[in-house]
Amino acid sequence: MRIRATLAAATVSGALALAAFAVPAAQATDGTGLAQAHKLAQQASGHQSGMQARSLTAAESGDPYELNATFSNIKVNSSKSAIVVGTTNAVHVSYSFTFTHGSDADPTADDFVSGIDIYRNTDDGNFLFGDAPATCTAASSTVANCKGSIDIHPQEELTNADAGAHWTGEAFATAYNGQDPSDPNIDWSKVGTAYQDAVSSNALQRYSKLTVNASPEPVKKGGTLTITGALTRANWDTHKYAGYTVQPVKLQFRKSSSSSYPTTYLKTVTSSSTGSLKTTYTATYSGYWRYNFLGTSTTPAVKATGDYVAVQ
Q1: When you count CB atoms within 10 A of the terminal residue's CB, does the N or C end of the chain come out lower?
Q2: Angle 194-195-196 (CA atoms, 0-180°, nearest 5)?
Q3: CATH number of the domain at 208-309, please?
Q4: CA-to-CA distance for 5 and 129, rounded, in angstroms?
Q5: What are the extents of the domains in the chain?
Q6: Predicted local confidence at residue 61, as pLDDT
Q7: How buried is residue 132: exposed, middle or buried, by Cβ count under 10 Å (0-12/13-18/19+)?
Q8: Cα–Cα distance, 191 to 41 (Å, whole number)
Q9: Pairing of strands 65-66, 143-152
Q10: Do domains 5-205 and 208-309 have the same CATH topology?
């Protein structure tokens, strides 16, 4: 089971503090190993995340050195801000970057761990990593092209408080250079790190659904149609879909002779305390009726599939 990497109010003694999740670097191929490599790179750069940490033991020695390296050409989620997540399925957010380095780093080595994570910068914040480190391919002796994914598992990693436009990306790399982080006599001076903050700005959004039903079908010209529906969204606390309440939803209609909906709206309907929608309209032409929700910072826009009604 994946572990939610949550910020904790822990005191870290110096840039040498290491994440409590200590595993051999060669085995650091899951979110826990990435959290460790990230922690080391972040703290060695002078940034303190507040994640659960421990101080070095007496036998451990040295400071990790800063790699002669830079991150560039960084793309997270194809440079799109919004990341939409439902209640069950994992969402894989792709990323890529160019890693330019000196002779002190080999991005293709088994014990070189790099990646991009996103974090929510609050006292009770959250870090989201990939299931595996980035895969780097050498383009030259000093340049590697790296890619991977941030793998979001909503049932294990998200709560409703995580929704919104307040997630920041950071790139990190740790070159263990044959050192085993679980060795009590490790020489940290032989471990190199690189870190870059604020490489992306993202919004996690709760997946939304919208339905519509217009009746009666068919209807006489000039008759009254009742248009019902429901606006729901993912609840990351209960892992179910629930009504999105008191939200403005637009009613649209297109004639059967048209291939697109007009840019103007017939009316605005407010969702109820359960997310349901209901309104009436006079039927004049045969065509398609739909609801259109324009979205909020926590919930993406969504359009219902049009419901056809023939006018006789």
Answers
A1: N
A2: 140
A3: 2.60.40.730
A4: 9
A5: 5-205, 208-309
A6: 62
A7: middle
A8: 10
A9: unpaired
A10: yes
